[in-house]
Amino acid sequence: MVRFFVVFLVLISNAYAAIDTYEFKDKSKEHRFHDLSADMRCPKCQNQNLADSNAAIAQDLKQKIYLMLEADKTDTEIVDYMVARYGDFVLYEPRFNAQNAVLWLGPIVLLVLGLLMVIWLTRSRNKAKQDNKSIPELDAKQQQQLQDVLNKDNKV
Amino acid sequence: MPRVLLFIPLVLFITLSFFLWKGLSIDPRALPSALIDKPFPDFKVEALLQSERFLTKADIVGRPVLVNVWATWCPSCRQEHEQLLRMAQESKIKIIGLNYKDERQAATQWLQQLGNPYAFNIYDEAGMLGLDLGVYGAPETYLLDAQGVVRHRHIGVITEQTWLDIQLLIESLGVNK
Predict the structure, then answer these.
(1) How far apart are CA A59 and CA A51, in angstroms?
(2) pLDDT on residue B176
(3) Which 8-state DSSP code applies to residue B4?
(4) What CATH number is attached to the domain comprising B148?
(5) pTM of the full predicted structure?
(6) Which of A43, A81, A82, B96 can pair with B136 through a Cys bridge, CB separation 3.0 to 4.6 Å?
């Protein structure tokens, strides 16, 4: 168990070693570098972000982010630069556009449809209840008959 | 409840099956190029075989060309090299090499030993032109029209079949092979 834990720690430290090779004078830039490289996907390895990937292209992109940060570019400029070259694919948090509008809006549309369905169902149920109430009240004689029937049941 | 509503589950099932079935034939590695129908990036990079000569975008526009991204560290590039040589022989279209993140000596040796299908080679040592192109590995091949606009991107080895497909595209750009 202890051995497993040690191996685990070693693996973790390796994973972070890839990040720490860049030296920043400004701590806030370092923070932005980590955020940016964590939010962008490595084009070569599909399901890893740039921070976790050691693929050659991921290293190049990290280098580029580093250089752009040092050149005082804004986050938006850096992200736009990457998207212009690698498409929306590089973003782990996709932007809203015509192509993925269905994915963004679909859940809202379904939610509204569901709410409408619930409203419609409760209304029709209420209406049915009201229809029940509109059955005329029993007159004295019918009340008597009802009581008789109920009493008979009780005796049995 | 109207009887028609009973068909909703069936319709849902058919729709879902259709999308799942469609998903089987999609290649998750094939990324659309962000540069399709956009101009090839501007550059000024050394030529591979003549280090004193600088190549620019002016060298690749004027007629449709293929730009082939390759490197000696890339085994698939060796695999497609024969095909490139055949293409250079049988077609009028120029193939321009983009030697990507490679060593000049190794690349020069490669061309001497295996043959040179390229009109000329751009020596992109740092991979920064590759980055501007959206290259994420080698081999990749781009078809540019006479204005230097990227028309098609092929990722991976060029086979006999992909060459046939590319030829159709070249013909549509108005170059007889």
Answers:
(1) 9
(2) 45
(3) G
(4) 3.40.30.10
(5) 0.71
(6) A43
- Residue A50, exposed/middle/buried by CB under 10 A (0-12, 13-18, 19+)? buried
- Domain limits at B155? 34-172
Total number of domains constituting chain B: 1
Structure token pair of residue A122 = 């409760």
Yes or no: domain A2-95 corresponds to CATH 1.10.8.640: yes
In a domain, residue B2? The reply is no
Residue B131 placed within a domain: yes
In this prediction, the answer to ipTM > 0.90 reads: no
**How many pairs of residues across A and B have Cβ atoms under 8 Å apart?**
38
Domain spans, chain A: 2-95, 100-155
| Rounded CA separation A65/B118 (Å) | 33
- Please check whether residue B166 lies inside any domain of the structure: yes
CB B15 within 8 A of CB B7: no
Residues of chain A contacting residue B71, judged by C-beta atoms under 8 Å apart: none
Examine residue B17 and state whether it is found in any structural domain, yes or no: no
Give chain B positions within 8 Å (CB) of A97. none
Question: Each residue of A21-77: pLDDT tens digit?
Answer: 788 888 899 999 999 999 998 888 878 888 888 888 888 899 889 999 999 999 999
Residue of A nearest to B133 (CA): A85
Confidence of residue A17 (pLDDT cuts 50, 70, 90): very low
In this structure, chain B runs to a length of 177
Query: Between the CA of residue A116 and those of A34, A111, B17, B69, what are the distances in Å?
Result: 44, 9, 28, 55
Q: What's chain B's average pLDDT?
A: 89
Cα of B91 to nearest chain A Cα, Å: 30
- The string of pLDDT tens digits covering residues A107-140 is 999 999 999 999 999 998 888 887 777 677 788 8
User: Torsion angle, CA of B45/B48/B54/B60, rounded to 10 degrees?
Assistant: -80
Rounded CA separation B136/A40 (Å): 14
Predicted confidence at residue A14, as pLDDT, reads 52
> Contact B136/A44, CB-based, under 8 Å?
yes
